[in-house]
Amino acid sequence: MKIGILALASVAFATTASAATSENPFAREKAVIQIQDLDLATTEGQRRLAIRMDQSARAVCGQDMAGVHLAAERKSQDCQAAVKSDIRRQIESRMAAASTASARQFALAQ
């Protein structure tokens, strides 16, 4: 399955994941995760992010595919793991970029 993740903003993140729907008719083409309302420094914020990531990964990759075929279930699980990994990587990358930009602005202000 083809998976693409795109973070749309540097601080207020929106993440889009897409999968080829021709390969999985039980999945949506894309899902958007809004995380600008989450405080990722808290346990609650991280828990809510994990829930949103799970929901989006299932929406993009399908879920409960074992009733269709066990191979489809395995592909769905692999897709979900890849989507979540890509989401984490994009968030970490954007947060690092935002942190660097913030540090530069602080240094310039002094």
Polypeptide structure, described:
This protein has 110 residues and is α+β, with helices and mostly antiparallel strands. It contains two helices and three strands, in the order βββαα. The chain has a three-stranded antiparallel β-sheet with strand order 1-2-3, with helices on one face. Strand 1 and strand 2 form a beta hairpin. The relative contact order is 0.19.
Topology of this structure?
Layout: E1 3-7, E2 14-19, E3 30-34, H1 43-61, H2 70-109
Antiparallel strand pairs: 1-2, 2-3
Helix pairs in contact: 1-2
Low-confidence stretches: 1-22
Largest β sheet strand count, sense and barrel closure: 3 strands, antiparallel
DSSP strand content: 5-15%
Mean pLDDT over all positions: 74
Strand ordering within the main sheet: 1-2-3
Query: What gross morphology would you assign?
Result: elongated
Helix and strand pattern = EEEHH
Helix content: 40-55%
Task: Say how many strands there are.
Answer: 3
Identify the notable features of this structure and list them briefly.
110 residues; alpha+beta; three-stranded antiparallel β-sheet; 2 helices; 54% helix; disordered N terminus
In short:
This protein is an alpha+beta fold and 110 residues long.
